[in-house]
Amino acid sequence: MPTRPTYPGVYIEEVPSAVRTIVGVPTSITAFIGRAIDGPDNEPVKINNFGDFERIFGGIYRDYPLGYAVRQFHQNCVKT
To answer: Does a structural domain hold residue 16?
Structure first.
């Protein structure tokens, strides 16, 4: 409903919006996508440390940057 000003000035009319507010989600989930020596194809695998990555995916291979990225992620004191 519009406001009828009775004296000069700035008037604000708040109109309810049908847009939904943004819902909070966890931001502590990290995903790595890349090539590895070994491991399952096209399915997500949860790992908790670099040792898990080495056992499942074969560790670091010089031609694939994935292993280096996962190792540095865990070396930087990231808790999962």
So the answer is: no
Q: Is residue 34 part of a domain?
A: yes
Cα–Cα dist 17/51, whole Å: 50
Angle at alpha carbon of residue 49, lines to 25 and 27, rounded to 5°: 10
The candidate with the shortest Cα–Cα distance to 56, out of 30, 70, 76, 37, is 37
- Is 2:13 a contact under the CB 8 Å cutoff? yes
Among 24, 20, 44, CA closest to 32: 44
> pLDDT tens-digit profile of 36-71?
999 999 999 999 999 999 999 999 999 999 999 999
Q: Which two tokens stand for residue 45?
A: 């695998």
pTM (predicted TM-score): 0.62
- Give the H or E element holding residue 56: helix 50-57
